Amino acid sequence: MDTAEFVQRGSTIVDRLSTTQAAPPWQLVVGTGVVALVLVVFHPTWRVLRNAVTIAHEGGHAFTALLTGRRLNSIRLHSDTSGLTVSSGKPYGLGMILTMAAGYPAPALVGLGYAALLGAHRITLMLWLTIALLLVLLIKVRNFYGLLSLLVTGGVIFAVSWFGTDTTQAGLAYLAAWFLLLAAVRPVIELQRNRAYEPNSDADQLARLTRIPGLLWVLAFGAIALCSLVLGGRLLLADVSGVCVPPLTHSTCAASTAR
């Protein structure tokens, strides 16, 4: 790629960030949902792709720590798909509770945010916001596997958004949204299943901080994941089914009303 083509492609992406893209065909929307479900249910693919959920999980801890005034020290992502985010501040209080509680809901809420952007036909914006968030996390990652995970994930998104066709970009965007929405449920189930062997799970640490039983925290995480999946699914399927969720799909709803 020569300099002129590079600049032209960059200008095109900048233009697309502020505009909407054409709605993909319904086969792509539904097909990526089915593929995402298979990736979550099938154990060999889940073992690999769960890393994406861990990135979102630790990102939830990290960004909440910053928002609540805590000092973010480091993020580590491990090859067994576990992770650790370390922040400093008071070991009790609202900031600590919110930071601890943010991990499990984060994949579902990120997926819901993706669905809102895609429901508004902001495919390019969704992809580049993801790259920006990964770059922010990259600053605080302190182990090699974590760096590799973020670089590979960001590299794939960049390559597709820069070189891919509109259909390829839409396919990756919808697959990512469906995957996070569906995948957010499984770690909550695993959390409850493993609590007997992991006394320092997020739910149990929250129980000690708040005196609210760990099971109630697990149920809260599950409720957020399921509600996000329902609402996110409606947003993603709005163009297919005619289901509208104002104001997130205002243009789609307006078009449906006009018809």
Features:
259 residues; mainly alpha; two-stranded antiparallel ribbon; 2 strands; globular; membrane; M50 family peptidase; Peptidase_M50B-like; transmembrane
Structure description:
The chain is mainly alpha-helical. It has one domain. Helix content is 73%, strand content 5%. It has 13 helices and two strands, in the order αααββαααααααααα. A two-stranded antiparallel sheet has the order 1-2. The radius of gyration is 19 Å and the shape is globular. The relative contact order is 0.14.
Please give a quick description of this structure.
It comes from Nocardia terrae. With 259 residues, this protein is mainly α.
Approximate shape:
globular
Percent of residues in beta strands?
A: 5-15%
- pLDDT under 50 segments (min length 5)? none
**What's the helical proportion of residues?**
over 70%
Oligomer: single chain
Structural class: mainly alpha
Measured distance between first and last alpha carbons = 44 Å
Spatial sequence of strands, sheet with the most strands: 1-2
* Computed Rg: 19 Å
Overall strand count: 2
User: What's the helix count?
Assistant: 13
**Overall mean confidence score, pLDDT:** 91
Order of helices and strands: HHHEEHHHHHHHHHH
Tell me the domain tally: 1
Major beta sheet, specifics?
2 strands, antiparallel
Keywords: Membrane, Transmembrane, Transmembrane helix
Protein name: M50 family peptidase
Pfam families: Peptidase_M50B
Transmembrane segments: 25-42, 92-117, 123-139, 144-164, 170-189, 215-237
